[in-house]
Amino acid sequence: AGDAQDQSQQSGRLSSEGQEVVRRSVLEMGRIAATVNEAAGVIEQLGAESSRISDIVQSIREIADQTNLLALNAAIEAARAGETGRGFAVVADEVRKLAERTSKATGEITAMVSAIQEGTGKAVLTMQQGVARVHEGVALTSKAGNAMHEINDGAQKVVDSVNDISNALREQSSASNEIARSVERIAQMAEENSVAVRATASTAEGL
């Protein structure tokens, strides 16, 4: 009974420890989900900023295209002016080259921004999938926690039952000992009665 009681109590302790581990796991997974959600929000914000950058770059490109067109028109007018427009033609040509370089640079920036947006989109999607899996893990861990709670309750009931049995056995042992002592007293009294009877019989024979 003692071994069974010890084993039942050990099972109860292990069940309680397992339940605590599951509870902590649920809390930690919840923190992980919150952190991933926060990171996804930051990346989404980065994607929004990239979109604004893309809009600004598009405006710069449009201005560069208009500047390039104006420079070409200015060069044509300078050519028509002949010698007097030569200096203006040089300036118009430099403005045209600057507009072309600006347009090329905006194209490169647009490509980089597009790559950033694509990367952030994939990162957000991956994080969202990660959050979904974390939530699934939390749900499964919660179920495990409930199961551990039921196991803990069952183990506690077993411990209580074993304690009751152990107490009953102790009471039974005490009662058995008392019965044994009573039987011994009865046997002793019977022996004394037998001796007394024999003595009485012997006395009667002597009369």
What descriptors fit this protein?
Helix Hairpins, 2 helices, mainly alpha, 207 residues, 0% strand
Walkthrough of the structure:
97% of the residues lie in helices and 0% in strands. It starts with a helix and ends with a helix. Helix 1 (2-81) packs antiparallel against helix 2. It has a single domain (2-177), classed as Helix Hairpins, CATH 1.10.287. The mean pLDDT is 80. The protein is mostly helical.
Question: Secondary structure elements and their pairing?
Answer:
Blueprint: H1 2-81, H2 86-206
Helix pairs in contact: 1-2
Summarize this structure briefly:
The chain has 207 residues and is mostly helical. 97% of the residues lie in helices and 0% in strands.
CATH topology: Helix Hairpins
Low-confidence stretches: none
Give the count of structural domains.
Answer: 1
The biggest sheet, with number of strands, parallel, antiparallel or mixed sense and barrel status, is: none
End-to-end separation: 63 Å
The number of helical segments is 2
At the fourth level of CATH, the homologous superfamily is Methyl-accepting chemotaxis protein
**General form:** rod-shaped
Could you spell the SSE succession in H and E letters? HH
Instruction: Tell me what portion of residues adopts beta-strand conformation.
Output: under 5%
CATH architectural name: Orthogonal Bundle
What is the average per-residue confidence, as pLDDT, rounded to a whole number?
A: 80
Please bin the fraction of helical residues. over 70%
Instruction: Report the structural category.
Output: mainly alpha
The CATH class is Mainly Alpha
- Rg estimate, integer Å: 49 Å
Give the strand tally.
0
